[in-house]
Automatic annotation (TrEMBL):
GO terms for biological process: DNA integration; DNA recombination. This is C2H2 finger domain protein. Residues 735-756 form the C2H2-type domain. It comes from Lasiosphaeris hirsuta. Residues 1-59, 527-550 are annotated as: Disordered. Residues 20-41, 48-59 have a biased composition (Acidic residues). GO terms for molecular function: DNA binding.
Amino acid sequence: MARHRRRPNDDYSDGSNSDSPDDVSLSDEDEVFDVEVDDAGYETSPTDIDDEESNDTGDFGDDFDDFDIEDQVQLFDGNLHPREYYLKQLKEFNEAAYDDEDYSEGSTILLDGIEELWNKYCAWFEYDPQESFESVSLGSLYNFFDWLLGQKAGKNGRKKRGTKKSSSLGTYWKVFRLVYERATGAKLDAKLNRKMHRVLKKLAKKHGLSDQKRENRCMTVDDLKQQVETTLGTTEKSFSLGELRILCVLFLLLLAPTGARPASVLKLRYRDIRVVLSRDLDGGPHKVLIRFTLEFTKTYLGTKDAKTVTLPEILFDDSLMLSPHVFLEGILFRHRAFEAPSLTCPDAVSRLDIHPGEWELPLPLKPSMHDVYIFRRAVKTLVGYEMSPTEPISPTTIAGWVRRVGELTGFEVPTIPYNLRYNAANVFDRSSNVSDATRNLMLDHANSNPFQRHYLGRQLAVDSYALIRGLEPQNALVQKSCSIGHSISKRRPVNLTPDQAASVNSHPGIKKLASKVKELREQAKHSRNAMEKYKKAHDKLRSAKQTQRRALKDKIREQWTNKQAVIDIENQLAGLGFVEEPAIRKSNRPRRPAQKRLMNALTAPVESTVEGQHRRRDVAIYAVMAYCVVVEGPAVRRTNSGAGTMRRSSVKDEPREDSYYAEDGRRAAVLSVFIASKEERPRRCFLCVGLALRLEPGDPCIEELTHEFYSAGDLSKHFRRKHLKNIQEGDDIECGACYMPLDHKRHLQRHALQIHGTVS
């Protein structure tokens, strides 16, 4: 019997043709759950339910061609199990286990979140949740969603941002219908469903929800280049480990040409990457091809087909900053990922050839790395950071990086990974080399409806006036004006001034919390219970201040464009030209030597010969490899915690002679970490000073690592928080100041007390 395709329903806010929560979208500004919901997993896209046509003639048709011959033989040649095995299996078969739909992990979070809110709502009114589902009415649904929109606090009193968009309310309703179906085994009444449309409109008006959709602005290649350049060159944004900075760039460079969902790129493992040396069809030098397989991230009704993308090397590339080959090969060589034992450096690739009569030479990766994620987060260790062997970078983390770097670049609108997906979709649509079917396959869409409704730019990149007048369209100008980079300005503020940051203290809510914290601080001196209340109140005050500062910064950035335009106009008309404002943005430290080397290698001019171009590429890959081991300190100096999170910023591991670091103060710092008298304990961290001994001269981290704390008590706090807390079982422990290995955590604590006077 044929399974019918579900028809699109007009009440779907996203135009999808199923009730799958994989196909819904939430606004970046909205929050209703007590869990993090990643934007990358819920972008709009229809989900098809394929027709399975029955064939009354008994002809298997094309499906028979896919039937394996060995399977056909085994089907009629006995069986693996005896008759009793299948009789027992039939008797014990649990049909209930197949009642639930096959949703992705992200969709399950949405369903569980709404169900948890329903249970909380019923408990508040002393209703039974299951009975309330079975007796649901229009009035109870109105009351529930009105209550839901009024939720301002989550677990442990955490303040929620609340719901700002009417489209998010539509999403909650779609998810609720699936929760209802999961709880009762039946679909919601169609008449009730139609009435709920008017209820949702009324609730949206009552709570002042906006109908404005998120702008689907594109990040063009020029915008991407500026984003990448800022990511690599800025010292205003710090990554805990240099490899994370490299991975942030690689993520953008793999996302840009594919138009893939961000989550599918973040899920790439080494087994999904295939590197080959390919013969050039025009008789030129061999080129490196990168083939990577992206898995479809929406798994409603089962896993979807994966797609493989091929990126050929651009040999004479004007900008290596836009070369995914340089960054990916830097990661592969840095982790020695190639299976060939001698393939350990990039210049070895230039010496390889392809066997006569063949088109490619595979460069296989080690099987032991097949299940390792490429995009992994960094974890704290005793004296710094290292890459986690198993934990991938989350979509929320990468989105935060992209947004912050976008601010530093000077973009007016918040940058999100989907800006690149929007751009790829529109470029594919305009290209005569890409059919609609190929575009839909690249975007993981079943048809063109999602593209037309959600990806086709609402800022029309068409010079329509020139077209109707029969003139040559200024397409390049119009397309640029519709991108996120057309309003870029390095003058746009990215941080609050000290006065602006302090102004939030006058907010009535902040004053009230500060007064409560002050009261509890006095009580905490005499009561252990009051101390716990004081800590919670202090955390709440700090969170509230951060919220107010974030809102103030967004407001200032939103108003800056028009205000600055008026100032520029008035100054020019007065004959003053562009008056430079006092610089309020300045980096708190210069670039590291490894960062300078990286930027110089990636911006090197194009060579005129193939050999020179290979050297240019290899130098850039070496620079990427070297920067991966850099452990970056905080972007803003924290005087109460020192710089104990930094490990080293070069690959030099051998200790130096004393004369080598006499000029930069490291010798004096080493002498100061040992106990000199019983009356005064050292105020420098001996572990951080030991790390400083391994750095190159002139490294800006030296000053932070040899920082002297205000008191020995502050040093003890730093030692516990930044070092002892991060020791994992099996870690190698060493005192860099004494060049002495230590057996275990207790040994380290005893050594710190007896030799360096650090109490822990």
